[in-house]
Specification:
This protein is 33% helix and 24% strand. It is α+β, with helices and mostly antiparallel strands and 264 residues long. Among the domains are: 1-55, 2-Layer Sandwich (Uridine Diphospho-n-acetylenolpyruvylglucosamine Reductase, domain 2), CATH 3.30.43.10; 170-260, CO dehydrogenase flavoprotein, C-terminal domain (Enolase-like, domain 1). The longest helix is centred in the last third of the chain and has 20 residues, at 241-260. It is globular and about 55 Å long. The relative contact order is 0.12. Residues 26-34, 51, 71, 98-99, 103, 106-108, 110-112, 114-115, 117, 120-122, 154, 159-160, 181-183 line the site of flavin-adenine dinucleotide (FAD).
Length: 264
């Protein structure tokens, strides 16, 4: 690990000021991804700005047809929250499947979204639920936020404060876990919105989260969706592209079956 200075922010403004003051600094939330990256020298920072105790990043509020979840909310808190379970059961289900109990106790929504790992779970929910990422500087629609592998629309000095999700009529998530890490080898989030629009978002299968529009159309028309095309999907030591395409199709069936059985 390279040497760095640790700064614990007392408020959102101070955190933002420090990030601007030190161009080589990074915010630290749960540390589940950032700390191992620093340890293995995959990342280098001059300062770590700890945002883990900021009250501005906490809380879950139901606001009409939306649910606002603070960026600092831990995966276990999202999974267990009564409002999330009532309004967005698919999101609670997703958060409860992230990693293991230790990761869920430390990792945060904001850290996961900012990191945009192509095999992370939350990005699928944000895309399917037409979410908006609220930062300390602006609001960014999920469709414009995820730019590709580990890349987002965030500026270096920009902090995620919360995510605002649209509350759909129904939602569900199905994931095929990597047996060692728990990350998604294919994860499919399905949502039927209040206006009847269907959304199907896939994570884990490609170099970034994406909407599977053929499956959305088939679902809306009550048809069986065809198989996901495998060209362009991830092809690595964990799984070839054809297998990932197959897994995504199976996860879609499982997510839709959960809706049909009204389990969620
Ligand atoms: C063993 C293991 C298994 C895992 N399994 C899964 C899994 O199955 N599914 C899954 O989705 N994830 C998984 N993860 C990742 C986990 O969900 C982490 O919580 C997540 O990747 C990062 O969240 P964090 O709060 O720890 O962020 P950190 O590690 O602290 O930060 C990650 C990145 O986000 C930035 N950041 C943090 N907070 C903010 C903010 N508010 N605004 C702007 N930038 C910010 C940091 O600067 C850093 O670049 C796993 C991790 C481990 C170690």
């Amino acid at each position: 690990m390279h040497a760095f200075e640790y700064l614990r922010a007392g408020g959102l403004k101070q955190a933002g000021d420090w990030l601007r003051q030190h161009p080589e600094s990074r915010p630290l939330a749960g540390g589940m991804t950032l700390v191992p990256s620093l340890k293995h020298r995959l990342a280098q920072v001059s300062h770590l700005v700890d945002v883990g105790r900021l009250t501005e990043l906490r809380g879950i509020d139901s606001q009409g047809q939306t649910l606002r979840v603070g960026a600092g909310m831990r995966h276990a808190e999202v999974a267990e929250d009564a409002q999330v379970r009532q309004h967005l059961p698919g999101l609670a289900q997703l958060a409860g499947q992230i990693g293991d109990p230790q990761v869920r106790a430390r990792g945060t929504l904001g850290g996961s979204v900012a990191n945009n790992d192509p095999v992370a779970d939350y990005p699928a929910a944000l895309l399917a639920l037409d979410a908006v990422v609220i930062t300390d500087q602006r609001e960014i629609a999920a469709a414009d936020f995820f730019l590709g592998m580990f890349s987002t629309a965030l500026q270096a000095d920009e902090l995620i404060v919360a995510v605002r999700f649209q509350v759909p009529r129904r939602s569900a998530y199905a994931k095929f876990r990597h047996p060692a890490s728990g990350y998604a080898m294919a994860g499919v989030f399905v949502a039927e919105h209040a206006d009847g629009q269907r959304r199907v978002a896939v994570t884990g299968a490609a170099d970034g989260v994406f909407r599977w529009s053929e499956a959305e159309q088939a679902w809306a028309q009550g048809r069986q969706p065809g198989a996901l095309r495998h060209d362009g999907l991830l092809d690595d030591i964990h799984a070839p592209a054809r297998y990932r395409a197959h897994l995504a199709s199976v996860m879609l069936q499982q997510a839709l079956a959960q809706l049909a059985a009204e389990k969620v």
